[in-house]
Amino acid sequence: MAEVEEAVAVCFVVRIDDESLGSFNSCDGLGVEFTVEQREEGGNNGMVWQLPTRIKYSNVKLSRPVTKDSAKIITWIAGMAAGISRKTAVIEARTLQGTVIASWSLSGVVPVRWSGPQLSADSPKVATETLELAHHGFLSSAR
After folding, report:
1. What is the pLDDT of residue 142?
2. Residue 106 belongs to a domain
3. Is residue 118 part of a domain?
4. How many domains are contained in the chain?
5. Does residue 24 belong to any structural domain of this protein?
6. What span is annotated as the signal peptide, if there is one (predicted)?
7. Partners of 89 in the beta sheet?
8. Beta partners for 53?
9. Which of 22, 34, 33 lies closest to 91 in space, CA to CA?
10. Which residue in 35, 86, 103, 112 is deepest, having the highest Cβ count within 10 Å?
11. How far apart are CA 96 and CA 102, in angstroms?
12. Distances (CA, A) of 54 to 16, 41, 140
């Protein structure tokens, strides 16, 4: 029997149009929802038609401790001031050894929100940042 590789990711490497934003330790929101409209058909009492109408993609939230890669996010966002242009993003889930477990390609990506660390001398916590991305859907496999 073949050995099954566990899908345990320790980091998520993110590229925007082949420019690396570095690795993140948390990725949340990869998902899709199909909106369904119900229609009743006269004379058909055994069922109600379920008609898919729209596809909604949830925003993706990426979090990590602040590193030197944090400047890459700010540079990307600052570049958007001249005009919004949608990008393609690739998110790779990787193991500690750097092996890619899974990857997702997103089309029409724009940053929605970035929140930096809350800095306080009274609280010696790890400084973290969160990047939230909106997108228009998934592309075929990145690998």
Report:
1. 45
2. yes
3. yes
4. 1
5. no
6. none
7. 16, 106
8. none
9. 22
10. 103
11. 14
12. 26, 21, 19
E-assigned strands of the chain?
11-16, 19-24, 26-28, 32-39, 49-57, 60-65, 87-94, 100-115, 128-134, 137-138
Tokens 């490497």: give the residue. Answer: 13
DSSP state of 73: H
Each residue's pLDDT, cut to its tens digit, for the chain (143 residues) gives 555 556 666 899 999 998 999 999 999 999 999 999 999 998 988 999 999 999 999 999 999 999 999 999 999 999 888 888 999 999 999 998 889 999 999 999 999 999 998 877 777 788 899 999 999 999 976 44
Task: Name the token pair of 137.
Answer: 């859907």
The predicted pLDDT at position 143 comes to 47
CA 42 to chain centre: 43
> What pLDDT shows up at residue 67?
92
Which residue range(s) make up the domain with 62?
29-37+50-138
DSSP summary character for residue 31: -
Residue that the structure tokens 């320790």 belong to: 10
The tokens describing 28, both together, are 């949340």
